[in-house]
Amino acid sequence: DTARGHPQYIAKYLHGEPAGKVGRGPRELIAQRSNGEKFPADIAIGEAMVDSRRRFIAIIRDITDRKERDRALRDALETAEAATERERKANRAKVSFLAALTHELRTPLNAILGFSELLERELSAAPNSKMGDYAQLIHDAGEQLLQLVNNLLEFARLEAPSLINNPEPVHMRNFTAHLE
To answer: CA 152, 158, 159, 162: dihedral to nearest 10 degrees?
Structure first.
């Protein structure tokens, strides 16, 4: 496509205008083979004096393979970036789910622990009561569940450090005193 302008460019160059393309290294263009097929190419133009005459030398290199590799690399990069973004979204959803789950589990679990502690204290007045043993079993099971919930929360915190939750112990006797 640029061949039409070559004679004019060469004439200007020979009359002293500065070199725009000669000696400037390769540049990309669309070249055409003798059979009419077009292809991407690099062209580098140099000049030499031969038999006291100025000569131009052009090196044309077919860069079709390089262009295809570049396109494949761009496609692979776009695919990888899309996969990374999907992974980030999935990770955010997982962390959000874990945070909500631990909150939803912690609320009723704290009630179970608190009321089982109150029940233990009420039943401690009755010696050898099986009910006191049952209340202790309920409280112990609740503590184990709370540890599992805390482990889930810690996992979520490792996945998303911005998730902040600072649980504090609450003594139900003091809490219920305010309710009466």
So the answer is: 110
